[in-house]
UniProtKB/TrEMBL annotation:
Native organism: Polistes dominula
Subcellular location: Lysosome
Keywords from the UniProt entry: Lysosome
Main location: other
Protein name, entry field: Late endosomal/lysosomal adaptor and MAPK and MTOR activator 4
PANTHER family registered for this protein in UniProt: RAGULATOR COMPLEX PROTEIN LAMTOR4 (PTHR33967:SF1)
Residue stretches in coiled coil: none
Family designation: Belongs to the LAMTOR4 family.
Length: 103
């Protein structure tokens, strides 16, 4: 199993309980309670999405929040919320720009 600290281009991480308590953290997100609260609020918001739009029991697998130079990737596993802040490389920025152009 790959340790969260060893994810390529990772510049920070948080591991949270479902209620937002910080279990572990590092890098730019070390002990960042403000970001933890924002992430938990976002995860809670996904529970309020119209149930007619999604089949019962279906939930998100990953949430990505992208900025020009970095992104946050949020995943749920084993009743924990994992958040990784990654630096975006030039090639990743170009791929995202191309996706918008294709639309």
């Amino acid at each position: 199993m790959l340790s969260i600290e060893r994810i390529p281009d990772q510049i920070g991480y948080l591991v949270l309980t479902e209620d937002g308590a910080v279990l572990s953290s590092g890098g730019d997100l070390e002990n960042d309670e403000r970001i933890a609260n924002v992430i938990v609020g976002l995860v809670m918001l996904t529970n309020k999405i119209d149930p007619k739009a999604f089949p019962t029991g279906e939930s998100f697998e990953k949430i990505s929040i992208t900025y020009p130079d970095h992104c946050y990737i949020i995943c749920l596993s084993n009743k924990k919320i994992y958040v990784v802040k990654k630096k975006l490389s030039l090639s990743e920025k170009n791929i995202e720009l191309q996706q918008f152009i294709d639309i």
